[in-house]
Amino acid sequence: MFIRRFHLEKGSSAREAAKLAGVQMTFWIGWVMTSYQTIFLKEQGFSAASVGLVNALMSAVAIAAMTFWGMVSDKIHSVRKVNMILLIVGFGSYAVIPCLANVPNAFLVLILFITVFNFFKGSTTIFLDNLTVRICSGRGMHYGVIRSSGSVAYAIMSLLVAANIGWIGSANTFWLGAVLMIPPIVLIFFCEEPGGRSRAKSDKKNGLPVGLLFKDSQYVAFLVFTFVFYVAIGFEASFLPYYLDEMGFGTNNYGVLLAFRAFMEVPLLLGLSKLSRHFRMQYLIMVAAMLMALECFLFGSVVSSLVSCVGICLLFGLGNGLYLGASPNYIYQLAPDQLKATAQAIYASVLSAAGIVGNLLGGVLFDAVGARPFYLITGAVFMAAVGLFLLSQLMGKKPKTAEAEF
């Protein structure tokens, strides 16, 4: 019965749906371990500003990386192969990070190593979404259901790791993350390749007219929104362990918050197909950002206990679920067939550029103003992103109607 929920058309393959769901579940189980990099660096004596610097440098590398890998994917017509390269090299190198904590000049060595190898690891989530959306669209499968399987797996694994992080230790999460990425690599190998050979040959003759993307005012407006939105995401996500520490809730509860957030992504991912029939994708994206803003405003004003903190973080989970489902499909709708991966990669490069600003400014700002004012400012930045996107929709041409690509 569960497999049937993946389908919208008779031609859909239950086997392909099961493989994609398996990829999502196993990938996000392994991705849980990456959440502890900030805590590991904090334990090594990195201040909020220093962690912000590391994250900003990672984002700077990701700008070039995601555009590069997007163009490689479109040229070789294999987003599947690119996914495997990113996972193998990205997480193979990730496992080495704890070994560098005791070398001479460890601070600089850690910054350099983490930054350089983010050329691979930093692109993994974007290209996994690209693979999933394109296969789902081609076969008429329900993207929201498949993606939500990853959120459920992430939530369960987050709770398990949070309950045992005391004896696991943040340093061991690096090699565990690498080991846990083996199953999704194997499953991706057996997934089908999105698109057909005939179109691939035509694309090779005609080249890749990347400029077409920047002539689309809707796509450009979304990139502007993305930049401001991800500055706020950089504020909110990167310094949450520092917020918990300053509020007296303890960083050991970090995984618990991530787990509850991930559980709350599921309802809106599952309901995205129905929502898209009544509301344009652009407005669903704006609602997602507003839910995240509300969480930040409440973090900065009313949170007084761990229970209230967990309850309020559910708002971010709802918003993130809506955004995770809507944004890749919105980009997929806007992009020409031969530029699907490139459009996603350019979008990812913009969010990485925002990550530079968000992490550099966020680290300094958090150290300067403290936890509560910091999250009030973050909520205001989210709302600024919504305002800009709404203005672009009111001033621009009428947006396209959402299509059933979920």
Structure description:
By secondary structure, the chain is mostly helical. It has 19 helices and no strands. Helix 3 runs parallel beside helix 5, helix 4 (79-94) packs antiparallel against helix 5 (106-121) and helix 6 packs across helix 18. The longest helix has 30 residues, at 340-369. The model is unreliable at 1-12, 196-206 and 398-406 (pLDDT under 50).
What keyword list fits this structure?
single chain; 406 residues; mainly alpha; 19 helices; 0% strand; globular; disordered N terminus
The total count of helices amounts to: 19
Uncertain residue ranges: 1-12, 196-206, 398-406
Structural class estimated from helices and strands:
mainly alpha
Shape: globular
The first-to-last residue Cα distance is 18 Å
Order of helices and strands: HHHHHHHHHHHHHHHHHHH
In what range is the share of β-strand residues? under 5%
Specify Rg, calculated over alpha carbons: 20 Å
Number of strand segments: 0
| Main sheet overview | none
**Overall pLDDT level:** 83
Helix content: over 70%
Q: What would a concise description of this structure say?
A:
This protein is an all-alpha fold and 406 residues long. It has helices at 14-31, 37-43, 48-76, 79-94, 106-121, 124-139, 143-168, 172-180, 182-190, 197-206, 211-214, 217-238, 240-246, 254-270, 272-278, 281-299, 306-334, 340-369, 371-395.
